[in-house]
Structures are given as C-alpha cells and as structure tokens.
C-alpha cells in the first residue's frame, strides 16, 4: 500500500515538474510579445476610460467638464444601449451556433478526405475568410439590394418572397442577410480550429470504440467531441468575441436601421458622427467589459482541463 502511494506521489510530482517547466517555457516564448501587446493596448483602454469621465464634445471643446460616472449611468439607463446590446447578443449567438455546426461538418470532411485532396479542400474553404470584410459586405448588399439584387429571383418560389422583396426594409430580413454574410465568411475560421482539434483525437480510442461495437454517431458523441473539447472552446470563444464586436456588415448594409444597431456601431455613432467623445468612450469601455465578461463565462463554463487535453493524466 505504501509502495503504491509512493508511486502515485512520484507520478504527481513528475507531472507537476513537467507542467511547471512547460509553463516557464511558455512565458519565456510568449512573454515579450505579450508585453508589447499590453503596452500597445493598455494606453488606448486607459485613455478611453479617462475620456469617459468627462462631458466632452468636439463641437464645444471649451465646455469640457468632469462628470465622473454620469456617462455610464446615462448609457445604462437609455433604451438605445439595451436594444443595441440585445441585437448584438442575438446575432452573436445565432451566427456562432450555426458556424459551429457547419464548421464541424467541414472539419470532418477535410479530416476524412483523401490525402491528395486535403490541400485543395482547405484552399477552397478558406476563400471566403480571405476576402476583406468590407468587400464581402458590399457583395452581399449588392446581391440582395432591390435595385441590383438577383437572389430574390432565385428564391421567388418560397412563400412571401418575390422579385420585389427588399430584405433591408425590415428587421428580420436585415438580420438574416447580415447573419448569412457573417456565417459565410467566418465558418472557415472555425472549421480550421476544429480540424486541429480532430487531429488531436487518438485513433486508438476510435478503433477501440469500433471494436466494442459503437456506431458512428456513438463514436462521434462519446469519443470525438469529448476529446476535442479544448479546441471547441477556443473556436467558440474566439468567434464569439469577434461576433460581439460586429461593425462592418452592419455599417455597409443597414447603417443601424430597422433595429440592427450593434454596440460597436452605437459607439461609432456617438464618437465619430456626433463627436460625443465622453459618451463614445464610455460605450467603448462597456464594450470592452462585455467582452471580458463573455470570455470569463466561456472559460468557466467549458471547464476544460488543458493538462488532460495534452495527455498529462
């Protein structure tokens, strides 16, 4: 019994030493870049917080006054903020869920494709992601616009759709077009991250499950997905943070009309269009805090043990 305890403690000590050395190496490699990134990003964040404490209009610079947290209280008490926040959350959840499903399907196709076809498949799938977001948004707007669109004629067989249907004159039409443009462009990003996760699933586990009589769906749900939980967390987290900051597609397609104003667009409208530096800075700080809270919720919700993911068991 004592021998077994000694072996267990020795194993834990070895794992701890390995984790400690890997963590030290990781900080040595990533530390300089992390330090530069903090220097570059810390100043704008602190400056935005400082500006948010003032009533500052560029059209009237002489009346700049310290107001403390009044800008934040004004924003949180305004229905425009909650409407923009609600639409941003809606489009984030809707697009990320669909992208996760489609991206996982594309990752499976690339993973199981014949080795000679894999480079071609990856290149073709990455084409939408390589297109600049503004260019992509203009293309989608052109395809659905009433005066130049051609998609309506393709979908005229569906009930409620005709060649004269303008999706940009109502909320749900605008929401669907913006969401489709986001899904089309960023699904390849998620598929590549999930493909990396699929490559980490031990083939031995798949073969053992097959020998035990597990069906393809059982192997998928009980072997593949649990063993790529870390990759799924990274893909969903990165994409959710990016989707929450959506701006380009909304700016190009609707300019915030029909209730499609996002938090980023609201901050832009206050800072650039109305030159309200104080309110715009407060909106930017609230956007930053929202992203931090979303990151915290995702990391805590997934509860991924990265040491187990790399095999330290």
Characterization of this structure:
The structure is a single chain. The chain has 2 domains: 46 residues; 258 residues, MetI-like fold, CATH 1.10.3720. The chain is 74% helix and 1% strand. Strands 1-2 form a two-stranded antiparallel sheet. α4 runs antiparallel to α7. The chain is globular, with a radius of gyration of 25 Å.
The helix content is over 70%
CATH class of the largest domain: Mainly Alpha
Low-confidence stretches: 1-14, 306-313
Q: Please count the helical segments.
A: 14
- What string, H for helix and E for strand, traces the elements in order? HEEHHHHHHHHHHHHH
Find the structural class using helix and strand composition: mainly alpha
Total of domains: 2
CATH fold description of the largest domain: MetI-like fold
N-to-C CA distance: 21 Å
| Secondary structure tally: strands | 2
CATH-level-2 architecture of the largest domain: Orthogonal Bundle
Q: Note the main sheet.
A: 2 strands, antiparallel
* Name given to the CATH homologous superfamily of the largest domain: MetI-like
Percent strand equals under 5%
- Biggest sheet, spatial arrangement of strands: 1-2
What is the general shape? globular
Mean pLDDT equals 82
**Radius of gyration from CA coordinates:** 25 Å
Quick synopsis:
The protein is an all-alpha fold and 313 residues long. It contains 14 helices and 2 strands; from the N terminus they run H-E-E-H-H-H-H-H-H-H-H-H-H-H-H-H.
